User: Fold these one by one.
Assistant:
Number 1:
Amino acid sequence: MADPNTHEEAPLGWPGQLWLEGRTLVHLQQEQERPSHMPRGPAKRTGVGFLNPAMAPARTRSVLLLADALEHGWLVKPGRPIRALDALCATGVRIRRWRNEIPSDLQHRLRITGNDLDEFALSWAKTSHHCHPPKRDIVHEPEDDRHGQPSDAVFTNGLHFQRLDARMAMVDAAYQWVDLDPFGSPIQFLDAALQSLSRTGVLEVTATDTAALTGSSPSSQARRYQAKGLVDEYAHDDAVRLLLGTVATTAA
Ligand SMILES: C[S@@+](CC[C@H](N)C(=O)[O-])C[C@H]1O[C@@H](n2cnc3c(N)ncnc32)[C@H](O)[C@@H]1O
């Protein structure tokens, strides 16, 4: 398998069209419609390498929260590094935003890994990072992995890319910060994500299987979440509670 950290050649369709998310330049695929000021998610199933502009506010919150954790030492002692994994990073927009937008005096404490199984999406991510690197060079000291062996992670301009099944990636290494943003339900990744988290850590979870979570698809809801919801005006509120409850019971 090609080393996902060596920038080889641009993926098919590069450079697409330029877009600014937060303070980070991203490349949308040419065929993707340009987002409006209040973008909506895709109406139909999208292909690999699609960047969902409707998720931009969620990524912005992730940037702000991680900066706060670093600044106020609520995950690790002040001065210690935080290892962060975007387990399903697709075109790498979130990890690039972490690297570009978190204040520069905190950057040296971040060890960021982006993982995805899809070669095309990873290539798009690496090419974006190569063409728009962070303003300051970030050099990491080598460190040991969770088994006490020297880690072979290679960080290029402050990001380490890998191409693994997300569950393997999470079982393989420990992180203080894990982001899970799958297509549809996160349920199949939850257990591995919780195993991967340090004793004190943050798990960011996105779920877009709204029909299952609200109960408008009762069989999916029962199968995935062992629940039976009432589809009334509180259905979306219930859906968030059901997701949080599922994470809590999986963790317990
Ligand atoms: C919704 S997208 C992620 C979007 C991304 N977080 C963002 O903010 O743009 C889901 C990604 O999961 C990847 N994926 C699906 N199953 C996977 C698996 N088992 N292991 C690793 N990646 C996987 C897909 O290739 C796809 O890029």
Number 2:
Amino acid sequence: MKEQIDTLPVNEAFESGDECPFCVLERQSEQRALRYVIGPGASYMEPDVRAATDSKGFCRQHFKRLYDYGNSLGNALVMQTYFVGLQKELENEIEGLELPGKRGLFSKKPQEEMSILQWAERKTGSCFLCDRLEYNMDRYYTTFFYLIKDGEFRKKAENCKGFCMHHFTELLQQARTKLPNGQIEWFYETVCALMKENLARVQGDLDWFIDKFDYRNASAPWKNSKDAVSRSMQKLQGGYPADPPFKQD
Ligand SMILES: [Zn+2]
Ligand SMILES: [Zn+2]
């Protein structure tokens, strides 16, 4: 095994019994990244980290995560320098602003893209935490496709509970470049079978959750259905709707 590939987290995720091993890895990775950005190590005070957050900013979802994490002063400092750069750039955009030509009433031709629009889209469309997550997930997929050459890991994968639709999609995308030649058949057969079997299982849990509201089933056991709503949501789009906010210790 190559030293530079850390296989432990992927192995553990596939042993976790979760609805999706890649959701497990994504949650770990996101919490680690949050702690890194705004946590006790105070890396937001390091010039190179600040330069990166100043350049990329954060998306809406990750501002929510940063807010929930709870380091208000840290968040304020990170945003302060971002605001300075943002306003400087806006000033430049306004200076170079060229109004688009008026369209004729019946012209179907779209207006030429204005550079200020492209700038604004770029500013709101990038996120330091999303980039970090994407980088880490990419490495986990690489590790997965490396590990499936090993029979023992393949057995582990065959016994997992499948994947959420979000990570199933990513797995198929990643397979286009990372799937080893010798495992093509195994991969598609196993992954498709896992999806089929486990979507049906989760739907069964959801069905029983609904049936439990029938008064005739009031005293019947919940079986695996108590958390069927959150697990179904995870199965459909990934993530953990029932998770409490991730906060600083
Ligand atoms: Zn997932
Ligand atoms: Zn983000």
